[in-house]
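hiii so my PI (J.) wants the whole complex modelled not just the main chain, which honestly fair. so below is everything: two entries, each one labled with what it is. i double checked the lines twice but i was tired so who knows lol
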Amino acid sequence: MKVRSPQPTRRHALLTGVMSVAVLALTACGGGASDSSSASSSSAAPNLADGGATTLTMWVDAERAPALEEITKSFKEDTGIEVKLAVKDFAAVRDDFITQVPTGKGPDLIVGPHDWLGTFVQNGVVAPVELGDKASEFQESAIQAMTYDGSVYGVPYALENIALLRNTELVPEAAATFDEVIANGEAAVADGKATYPFLVGMDPKQGDPYHLYPLQTSMGVPVFGQNEDGSYNADELLLGEPNGVEFAKKLVEWGDTGSKVINSNITGDIAKEKFNAGESPYFLTGPWNVPDAQKAGLELAVDKLPTVGDEDAQPFIGVNGFFISSKSANALAANEFAVNYLSTEAAQDAMYDVGGRPPALKASFDKAASDPIVAAFGEIGANGVPMPALPEMQAVWADWGGTELALIKGDGDPAEAWTTMVSNIEAKIAAQ
Amino acid sequence: MLTTAPPGPAATRPPKKTAVRSDSTLGLLAKIVLLGLVDAFAVYVLITLFLQEKWVILLVGAAVTVLVNWIYLRRGGLPAKYLAPGIFFLVIFQVFVMLYSGYVAFTNYGDGHNSTKDDAVNAIQLSAQQRVPDSPAYRVSVLEADGEFSLLATDPDGGVSVGTTGVPLEEADDAVLDGTGKAVELEGYRTLQFGEVLANQEDILAITVPFSDDPEDGSLKTSDGSNAYVYRPSLSYDETTSTFTDLETGTTYSDTGEGSFRSADGEQLSTGWKINVGFDNFVKAFSDPNIRGPLLQVVLWTFTFAIVSVLSTFALGLFLANAFNLPDLRGKRIYRILMILPYAFPAFLAGLVWSGLLNPEFGFINNTFFGGADIPWLTDPLLAKISVLVVNLWLGFPYMFLVCTGALQSLPEEVDEAARMDGATGWRIFTAIKLPLLLVSVAPLLIASFAFNFNNFNVIYMLTDGGPRFSGTTANIGHTDILITMVYEIAFGTGVGRDYGLASALSIIIFIIVAVISAISFRQTKALEDIN
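here's the output for the full assembly
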């Protein structure tokens, strides 16, 4: 899956609207005093059920739900606390969480990618968690991703990043630089073994800066600057680095009017279909497309991300984790579940077994890494950077993607287009 | 006058009467059951409201319940009985939504201003609690004595201490340890089991044990009842002045009346709250350079899109309705069903499917109809507009087809016949007689269709997302953006996150435009009726 969350459609807005109306109509917010929530359970209740603490509600999207069903069952057996999984639409779950937590009708926990965190904190809907000594048992980048403004807000359970998939029948040897990749790919095309030298999925409206990011970082053009502790600094937009324009020129060179290595008409679905049909030796994608490629009978190798410039090709890392609502009435139980239970090796193993996403806990990851594909992706991810969770990132995606797409199509002057993009993004961030 | 049958025998009447009576008993029973269900639900809601102390809504709810009972229990007042449910749902799902949008338009509701000030203060305080670097992790048991909870903490070296809110940690050497060396019991206290900890979590999470007499050392808190850490807040909140002070740098963040805490040099704490901002959103709607720049082009295109969509769908729908209205056409039914199929297709799905069909290199349209030509259907400004109109035609004509078929069938045959007797041609019959008659019933629907297409978000958003983009603006607005998609981009796509307040203000402006146009048009349609 792609960690970048798609923008909600109007249908979602409408649904949210209708739902919030229903909620408002029933719970009637804004009417009375604000001391409503605390009144119910302040007296000491000896009985577990009387305290209302026996159930937790967790929002999860359909893709992540299967991995969690087993684990919630065993949590109930161990502690008697039932975790109700409410399966929600991925495109809407983040916004619903933000709108419903303040009404007191939100869930206790939510599962999602770490780059939601900035918006969550901005809206005050998540509470920090203290992992204590367990923090060191997780991969460093996972904890770094879950940290925002100096506090850790989520319990990570899986990491994802992209890599270069290679069809070993078409190109037997790994390449280090993108030029070599192109050369190998074009050789395969020239031999008549393949139709496309290289594949990467492009959204027809937004391009795909997420997938092209390693190429960009290898030229020394990250999105934001990083502080000493690894967190991103929104005031330091680095897209405007001098090499940015060089990257823009490269995009034109690779694009529709150039060598057509990157084709703006190839969407993610088309790219997957062509790669699985053996029509290209290379596919720049994530682990989510590996099972189908294997099913299609391809001999796969997971190569390091190719470089264009002299620097490392760093992919974005997406970290999935559990967040606790700041208004959870069951915060203690939620902490028990997220911090003490889901962080155990057994739990992370189980989630990997069902969900197939590389675990964030080191011990579990090492076990999962017996699969060479997982190991290879993990190795590449160790070199990556967390996707920025800053709310400012929302202002970046549309311009960044749109400009890259235009350059790939060969529209406009690369230097001018790139500088305009940078100044547009700066203006948007400043307009806050 | 012919009397076809004599009046029925008197004997048949009594059973009829009893049937009516049993019907009304049944009716009464149904009424009691339904009203009982409604009342039961209302009482449940009212009790919940009472417990939550929401007095205003409680009163409104009670009044509505009484009103509903009065309407259905009294004799007579039949119209009210029919209208009440409709009005009830109209109020909840239409009037309330509109009023709420109106209210939101005057607030700064959006990302960063999501809830009340209390919630924001709470969230900031939660986030400001940071663990003292390199402080030990404690294992704790929760103790209870005289209804007050304490924490029994075991540090990593095995030292045991006890304390509670306001009572600093003190050593407790006589505590009973379990197998792992964790203190679990202390004389004079009762140790809580996990279930009890859960049941009293609110109080236990609130325990803040000062680490020592010096507040600088921080305090011990637990978030799960079994582990505790030493926290020290990085910000302190002063309720009387409603300011946050950064304990490290001494910077004060105060409530500047903009729904957030700001320091003197403009730095802002990340979580803010919802406030009323008066007409700010409307002022912004008219002064934002992102809106003003492309506004004229977008407005022109919105009108073009709406008008052409209405006319093209109506023309095609009417043509097909006429064609399939021929009495001697075979298989009419099957054709009609096929015609209506696109109507059953969700618009946003159709948008996605069409954007695939129109893919220049791999799309069906170019490959099949244009011999593999590379026509940029969705990325050339003019072609993109044409594509949007064609796709909307495909989506919209079945509705017009349905409406026109119905209207044509309701036209009296005699008029047709009379015209033919007078020697009128088919075309003349259509233009001089059928069309004007048709327009009387269809014109209001055309206006409704215009209003719908004026705000046809799905087709634009899913097919082109407004692209190709204008070169001159900062915002992500393009050649096929209509007003409503532009509003979406401006309110949700610029700055940092979504701005519901601005979105509501802009929607209200659009609503006014559409309302005015519709009102004028409806007035015009009265003239149509006069002709006939």
